[in-house]
Design goal:
Layout (H helix, E strand, L loop, with lengths): L1 H15 L12 E5 L4 E6 L5 E5 L3 H9 L4 H4 L3 E6 L2 E6 L6 E5 L11 E5 L1 H6 L1 H12 L4 H14 L10 E4 L3 E5 L4 E7 L2 E5 L12 H6 L5 E3 L10 E5 L9
Parallel strand pairs: 4-6
Antiparallel strand pairs: 1-2, 2-3, 4-5, 6-7, 7-8, 8-11, 9-10, 11-13, 12-13
C-alpha cells in the first residue's frame, strides 16, 4: 500500500508542478534533539515535523554508492550528510557523484534517496542538492529553501543540465529505521533518471490514468528542489538485472 501511495504521490507532484505551488508557507523551524541519529525540526504552523536522519559514515557511504552500477562505484565522488550539511569525503575519477539525497525533508518526507549523477548532473544538479542539504541542516523552512534555490537560478549560481545525461537510483527510495540502524523498506523501486528540464508529462503523453494502469511507463518528475529546471524522466528498472546492492 505504501508503495502505491508513493507512486501516486510522485505522479501528482509531477503533474501539478507546472500549474500549482506545491510548497506551503512555513515559519522558522525550531530544533529538538529526540534520539541519537535524529534531529527533529518542527514547523510551528506546519502539519508535520521534519526529521533529519544521520547515518554512521560507513553506512551512509555504502548507501550512497548502492545507487550506482557496480562498475562506477569505486571511482565515484562521495558526499555524506552531517550536522552542517553534505561533506565530500572522497574525490572520484570517473565524473560520477553519489550521495544520499534528502531534499524531500523540507516537505516532511523522511525517505532517503541514494543517487549517483553523471558528470553533467554533478556540475548542475549536485550543487543544488548540496545547498539544500546545508539549509536543511540549518533548520531552514521549505519556503526559505525554495526562495534560495530560485535566487540561485536567477543569479546564475545554479543552472539546469545543458545536455542529456543520467542519474542512477538503483537502490530506490528507502526508509531507515534508527532503532535497528538499518533500511526497513523500499518505498519507491529502483529507477534511472534522464535529465529533462522544462519537459512535462503532457510532452511525453503521460497522464494519471495511463500511469496507474501501466506503472512501468516513463514519468516526468519535477522535484522539490529546482522544480522544472531540474526535472527528470524516470524510467523503472528491475532490481534483478545485474544491479546488486
Amino acid at each position: 500500500m505504501r508503495f502505491m501511495q508513493s507512486v501516486i504521490l510522485l505522479l501528482l507532484v509531477a503533474l501539478t508542478a507546472l500549474g500549482a505551488d506545491t510548497h506551503p508557507n512555513e515559519s522558522d523551524s525550531a530544533r529538538e534533539q529526540i534520539v541519537p541519529g535524529l534531529l527533529k525540526i518542527a514547523a510551528s504552523d506546519g502539519p508535520q515535523a521534519v526529521t533529519l536522519i544521520f547515518l554512521p559514515q560507513p553506512q551512509e557511504i555504502e548507501l550512497a554508492l548502492s545507487a550506482g552500477p557496480e562498475h562506477l562505484r569505486l571511482d565515484a565522488t562521495v558526499y555524506v550528510f552531517g550536522k552542517k550539511g553534505y561533506e565530500k569525503i572522497r574525490s572520484g575519477k570517473n565524473g560520477f557523484t553519489c550521495l544520499v539525497n534528502r531534499d524531500g525533508n523540507q516537505m516532511g518526507d523522511n525517505d532517503l534517496k541514494p543517487t549517483c549523477w553523471d558528470a553533467e548532473g554533478s556540475a548542475t544538479i549536485v550543487p543544488v542538492m548540496l545547498r539544500v542539504g546545508e539549509m536543511l541542516a540549518q533548520g531552514k523552512t521549505a519556503n526559505e529553501i525554495r526562495q534560495e534555490i530560485d535566487r540561485g537560478f536567477s543569479e546564475g549560481r545554479f543552472v539546469s543540465p545543458r545536455k542529456a545525461g543520467i542519474a542512477y537510483m538503483l537502490r530506490g527510495d528507502v526508509q531507515y529505521d534508527p532503532k535497528t540502524m538499518s533500511i526497513s523498506k523500499t518505498l519507491f523501486p529502483p529507477h534511472y533518471m534522464i535529465y529533462a528540464p522544462g519537459v512535462t508529462n503532457a510532452d511525453i503523453g503521460i497522464n494519471m490514468d495511463a500511469y496507474q494502469k501501466h506503472p512501468s511507463l516513463p514519468l516526468v518528475y519535477a522535484g522539490y528542489s529546482g522544480g522544472v529546471r531540474t526535472a527528470y524522466i524516470i524510467v523503472m528498472v528491475a532490481e534483478d538485472k545485474g544491479h546488486s546492492h
